[in-house]
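Q: Hi! First time doing this. I have a protein sequence and I read that you can turn it into a structure. Is that right? Here it is:
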Amino acid sequence: MSLVQTSASDPPCSASLSLFDSSPVYRMACQQLATVASILHLDPNIVSRLMVPKRSLVVAVPIRRDTGETHTFIGFRVQHSLTSGASKGGLRYSPAVDLGEVAALSMWMSWKCGIMNLPFGGAKGGIACDPATLSRGELERLTRRYTEEVLSIIGPRVDVMAPDMGTDEQTMAWIYDTYSMKVGYACPEIVTGKPVELGGCVGRREATGRGVVFCIQEAFDELGIRPHEATAVVQGFGNVGSVVCQELQQRGVKVVAVGDRYGSIYNEQGIDIATLQKFVAAGNFLKDFPEAQRIPDDQLLTTPCTVLVPAALERVITATNAGKLRCRILAEAANGPTTPEADAILNQTDIYVIPDVLCNAGGVTVSYFEWVQDLQQFMWSEAQVNEKLRELMLKAFRQVRALAKNKNLPNRLAALSLGVQKVAIEKQKRGLFP
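A: Yes, that's right. Below is the predicted 3D structure, encoded as structure tokens:
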């Protein structure tokens, strides 16, 4: 079912150009891999396999709209690697989703699983749609039809989905039910990030944001920064960004600016996150929050702060604005928020970068916990989940920092090196079939 095959003589990405390479996100992921491969002196035959996803599926997803008309959406599921175990990755609903973006995200997920030493390969899925324009009934029909279309390549030991941008625990519940109806028995381990009542893991929804804050706290300790003297700016107020804001504020950090797709706000004295969450949950736009002033969106990332947290889209920190950042720590809660060109600029500054493949790995880590619990039918307490998450995040963080210091590497290259090397060694030891 793989759409792309390469041979040892193919240069990296050559066979994938027509399918993936029109995406700047995929080119960025390949560029990162090529850089790490050069540093690690990896076998080019292994690198050529890592450049191209193992399996890529594009499906038509027709549904009946509430108006009675039929509309066909395009869906994707990309499994970057199955070498380390079942592939693992989120499902996003976004108008901008395309095959290249999903392929890049699946690649980054492989490196995250490698960094965290999880028995998964990377995967990602998506449907090109705007979930805000779909009713609940339309979203359910869309999700169930998509599940039907990708049924042949998913499974609890093959590919396990989780929520991502535009999806949530209800989306996962629909996938769980659809898959279970097909196989004839309840199979909660087919997805993670589902409702607790259906075998979901307590603390999973907050896991990515909590993992980000665990990393930020470690950076504070290393740099001698006291949380009560720190300020934060967060781009994105969805599942990840809102939890980051909440967790930082609980530790005494003053959140001075927040933004989402509709606008950005600022309050020098600090934004009351609990009040803001209630305001947004009531159906209001973040930009209309009365206890903060509206600021231009392009000023959010350059607002002076101790820690800047991009928790929204890819490629928001570019060569254009990288030199204007006024933060001490850049904690990448989003996937791929910094372009390679911006990285080159940041490497010439004293900005402490916590790279995405490490910083936001809390989500897949607690997804692993949920998967294990479902397989064993033995559930953990939230305290156990949070403590184990903290333990694994800090272990990975310290391994990255140790490599960065020993080899004089930027944090991003150190983190990517750990993840890529683990997958590359496993591929080499397993060999090439047949």
